[in-house]
Write a structure and sequence with these properties.
The complex is a heterodimer of chains A (319) and B (287). Chain A is an alpha/beta fold. Chain A is built from 11 helices and 13 strands. In chain A, strand 1, helix 1 and strand 2 form a beta-alpha-beta unit. In chain A, helix 1 crosses helix 7 and helix 3 packs parallel to helix 4. Chain A starts with 10 loop residues before the first strand and ends in a 6-residue tail after the last helix. Chain B is α/β, with parallel strands linked by helices and 287 residues long. Helices cover 37% and strands 12% of the residues of chain B. Chain B contains 10 helices and 9 strands. In chain B, the strands form 2 sheets. Chain B has a 7-stranded mixed sheet, with helices on both faces. In chain B, strand 3, helix 5 and strand 4 form a beta-alpha-beta unit. The longest helix of chain B is centred in the C-terminal third of the chain and has 25 residues. The chains are: A alpha/beta (319), B alpha/beta (287). At the A-B interface, strand 12 of A face helix 5, strand 4 and helix 6 of B.
């Protein structure tokens, strides 16, 4: 491993997956205080000029050249594939393979900090869940929803960094449902005018504004911080309350009907919602973020009103 | 909510609600957020739909009598530990109603429900809005940390489904509540329920049939299953609820069962004494 002296200068941060909606937002916030280099296999547009962009697949050899050339103080790893239509093989190869490559490069080039954005989905919505899951809760998300097993494997693989690469300050962030100018399932679901809901079920839902997730990432960059942290936003509310406030007109269906409908729509490629996702609107899957609040000094800034405003104004967002 | 309650139904429940119940519900502080919900989904205003029915059973059908309710602290965490009887959990509903209607200031009782409750449509929703919480140890800890009042029946199914020949004999108490009390430094208020044993006196329990039907027990009473579902209605017995003085315990929550069991015995002794007193003082099963 390379040994280096670090002079007092701006933190130099590599953001993988900078081409995504969240990646762009993270870069826009961090570039005010850090030197940012972004890496993505997709073309990246409309970024501030002081951000260097490397259009590279993180699994390729050229990625190593970037590490060799730059003297990174931290890597924010956001390059994680979430496309429900991609095969499990693609997910595993890209997510696990890519993360493995990034971790090895960090170790070889003496990068002292690695931040990985996981998700509270790894815990999984279940009937016997504690109301608020702490970081040491078992990762059961794959039990009923095979398509996210790669994300659980990724999270568990990153857990091994704490003992495999003790010199790297690894931080795994597990935010709850992120809402913002992002194209993830909860944001898309709550933007729908007539979402499908399950008759007789009304679980408590915890949301977090994308900007608060970025605050969490920013705080995780603080030297000395390592570990796993849940992140949550404002106090949870029932799903039906979200519908009311957002003036949505949900179509309540009995669970078997909703499941069959989604399965059919999925197989006809008329929908991008895998039917096991219905568990998220049936059971609770909320996190306890006391650890982040106590150790990172994290505090959510955006309340529900801000989140509602975002969902109402980004309804026609061209993502 | 999953089905919109129409204005008509809303009005009907509003009319059925007594003034006292309305005032007490409005005065309830469950640590709800600015949107009216606590983190478990409890919505105090939802009690407007439950309270009229509960109040009718409490005041008219069972004509419940309450003793020593002021022994429940007005604020802060507390565990209510009660005997359990009567084949169907009417005792839980009546204790909850007593704390809502008779206690000043009112306290909301939180009960820990089975882990499969969130699987049942509508029930999962109604239970959550009415303040019931899925029974995990961590959920109990969170509730107590938030200053909640939890009702526990440590006898569980053993107590509620026992046959009438063992009426008012406490069955074995689980030790979990005591470990929880020690861990969270929570006072315990013993509660004795007198009257419940006679509402559905079971002469036999066909456990095998119950198991086949996925039920914890299958009681045979003078009216059930003879009169069909009607026979499953509880008799209009008079309930007497006795609340004892709070007991504070100290010790290690992870101590040996032997040590914890001795502390649990203090609670059972207090409950047994109140049951005896209640039985001695009552004039009849229906009076």
């Amino acid at each position: 491993m390379k040994r280096r002296r670090r002079s007092a200068r701006k933190q130099r941060v590599l953001i993988t997956g900078i081409g995504g909606n969240l990646g762009r937002a993270v870069a826009r916030r961090l570039h005010r205080t850090c030197d940012i280099v972004g890496m993505d296999r997709r073309p990246v547009r409309h970024m501030p000029k002081d951000i260097g962009i490397e259009t590279i697949d993180i699994r390729r050899r050229r990625a190593e050249d970037v590490f060799r050339r730059e003297d990174f103080d931290a890597v924010v790893h956001l390059n994680i594939l979430h496309d429900p239509r991609s095969s499990q093989e693609q997910h595993h190869e890209f997510n696990i393979g890519g993360t493995q490559k990034i971790a090895n490069l960090c170790a070889e080039h003496g990068v002292p900090k690695l931040i990985i954005l996981s998700s509270s989905n790894v815990y999984g919505p279940r009937s016997d869940n504690d109301q608020f899951l702490t970081e040491d809760a078992p990762l059961m998300g794959g039990q009923n929803f095979g398509a996210i097993r790669d994300l659980i494997a990724l999270d568990m693989y990153c857990n091994t960094f704490f003992w495999r690469f003790p010199e790297i300050e690894t931080v795994i962030l597990r935010p709850t449902h992120i809402i913002g100018r992002v194209n993830n399932a909860p944001s898309r679901y709550l933007r729908m005018k007539k979402p499908i809901a399950l008759l007789g079920f009304d679980p408590m839902i915890q949301l977090i504004h994308a900007e608060d997730v970025i605050t969490g990432i920013e705080l995780a960059l603080t030297p000395g911080i390592r570990g796993i942290y849940n992140l949550a936003g404002p106090s949870p509310v029932p799903l039906s309350y979200l519908f009311d406030r957002l003036e949505r007109k949900p179509r309540y269906l009995p669970e078997p009907v909703a499941k069959a409908t989604l399965k059919l729509a999925w197989s006809l490629k008329a929908s991008d919602w895998p039917s096991p996702e219905l568990d998220h609107i049936k059971y609770v899957c909320m996190v306890d973020d006391q650890q982040a609040r106590a150790q990172l000094g994290y505090q959510h800034e955006h309340g529900l009103d801000s989140i509602f405003h975002l969902l109402q104004t980004s309804g026609s967002l061209n993502l | 909510m999953p089905l919109p309650l129409t204005r008509g139904i809303d009005k009907l429940f509003s009319r059925a609600l007594s003034r006292q119940a309305r005032e007490n519900i409005d005065a309830l502080d469950a640590g709800q957020n600015e949107h009216g919900f606590d983190p478990f989904g409890f919505e105090p205003q939802f009690l407007r739909y439950v309270a009229p029915i509960a109040e009718w059973f409490f005041r008219v059908y069972f004509d419940a009598e309450v003793h020593g309710i002021d022994n429940i602290p007005d604020t802060g965490p507390v565990l209510l530990i009660s005997n359990h009887s009567g084949q169907i959990p009417v005792d839980g509903m009546l204790i909850g109603t007593a704390c809502l209607l008779e206690k000043k200031p009112p306290r909301m009782i939180r009960s820990m429900v089975e882990r499969w409750i969130p699987d049942i449509p509508f029930i999962s929703w109604v239970f959550a809005r009415a303040g019931q919480v899925v029974g995990t140890r961590e959920n109990a800890r969170i509730l107590l940390r938030r200053g909640g009042c939890i009702l526990v029946f440590p006898e569980g199914v053993r107590g509620i489904s026992k046959t009438y020949d063992r009426a008012y004999q406490l069955q074995e108490f689980g030790l979990g509540f005591m470990r929880l009390a020690l861990e969270t430094n929570t006072p315990i208020v013993p509660v004795a329920v007198v009257g419940g044993e006679e509402q559905m006196p079971a002469v036999a329990d066909l456990k095998g049939l119950g198991k086949l039907l996925g039920m914890p027990a299958f009681p045979i009473t003078p009216t059930f299953p003879l009169l069909g579902p009607l026979g499953g209605l509880p008799l209009p017995v008079k309930y007497r609820l006795h609340f004892g003085e709070p007991i504070h315990f100290e010790g290690a929550p992870d101590d040996e069962d032997r040590v914890i069991r001795a502390q649990v015995r203090e609670v059972t002794s207090a409950i047994e004494a109140m049951i005896e007193q209640g039985l001695r003082e009552r004039e009849g099963v229906f009076l």
